[in-house]
Design a protein that fits this description.
It contains eleven helices and 13 strands. With 301 residues, it is of the alpha/beta class. It has two domains: 67 residues, no CATH class; 218 residues, Vaccinia Virus protein VP39 (Rossmann fold), CATH 3.40.50.
């Protein structure tokens, strides 16, 4: 049944007024556990309130519902970080772009004179990214239809849910797999071996536990660029891929990087960016997303 009444919530949620979270979770039934309630809901097209691009949102997908209600991608901390680091004319690398939410935000920040390179191995997501590029006539996004690893290969991209954001190359019990797709990965150092473009200001990596494999394949490139890297640090996902936050931390520290936990903190009725230095490898276990930087002092300066 159509849920046309949900538009009544939009004045509260789009302005992110106090209580918007309660409205969308308790009244709007936005969480993934309520996907079945939205199975017949048609896709909706909205214009992002921050980047201004049109987005076609699959309302059967919980994260797309978040985007619909808020008018922006739901991961606020990452967008606030990009707002601080990325400027017009910059270059950003998005590894594990999914349907392109961070790619779009970065594209807005770098402008027509900048560049965003998006790596995404899932053909379903590739199609959605290409569609939004064409829908908006965006010229600064370059889509690479493959993932990054420590060697070129064809791997099984597995999902234990229909949500594409949890697709992983890590091991998964056959009984858990809902969708499996053969996907191409390449070694990042090979992809960027002859790169003569401007040094990226930021690399973002979110590949559901495959982060260390992607990093190892980019070791020479990262050593050359020394740019900031922001990545998801989910120990459960990493362990499923046979590694850990400790291994990722030791690898990055070995390249001369130090870590900051990317958080948000409340400022009156709004939230702002909060970067907290991670003083030990063990401290990475408590992080969700980490900014790695070689800059001395304040990483935002």
């Amino acid at each position: 049944m159509s849920r046309k009444w949900i538009v009544l919530l939009l004045p509260i949620t789009r302005l992110e007024l106090p209580g918007w979270g309660w409205c969308v979770t308790r009244i709007g039934k936005m969480g993934y556990e309520h996907d079945a309630l939205w199975v017949d809901e048609p896709a909706r097209v909205i214009r992002g309130k921050w980047h201004g691009y049109l987005m076609k949102l699959d309302m059967t997908n919980w994260s797309a519902r978040h985007t619909y209600f808020l008018g922006r991608y739901y991961e606020l901390h990452l967008q606030l970080l990009l707002n601080q680091l990325v400027k017009s004319g910059d270059r950003v690398i998005d590894i594990g772009a999914n349907i392109g939410m961070i790619t779009l935000h970065a594209a807005h920040l770098v402008g027509a004179d900048g560049q965003v390179e998006s790596f995404e191995p899932n053909p379903v997501c590739q199609k959605q990214i290409q569609e939004v590029i064409e829908m908006n006539g965006i010229i600064q996004i370059k889509l690479h239809p493959f993932g990054l690893s420590d060697a070129e290969a064809e791997l099984q991209l597995k999902q234990n849910h229909t949500h594409t954001g949890i697709g992983t190359f890590a091991e998964m019990d056959d009984a858990e797999v809902v969708v499996s797709t053969t996907a191409l990965v390449k070694k990042g150092d090979d992809v960027f071996a002859d790169d003569t473009d401007r040094t990226p200001i930021l690399i973002k990596i979110d590949v559901e536990g495959f982060e260390l494999r992607a990093l190892k394949g980019l070791e020479q490139t990262i050593t050359r660029w020394k740019c900031d890297v922001v990545m998801e640090m989910n120990n459960n996902h990493l362990q499923r891929a046979g590694t850990s936050t400790r291994e990722v931390g030791e690898f990055m520290v070995g390249l001369g990087y130090r870590a900051f936990d990317v958080r948000i903190k409340k400022k009156l009725i709004r939230y702002g960016l909060d970067l907290v230095a991670v003083d030990s490898i063990e401290g990475l276990d408590d992080c969700r997303d980490v900014l790695w930087t070689t800059k001395p002092g304040d990483p935002l300066c």
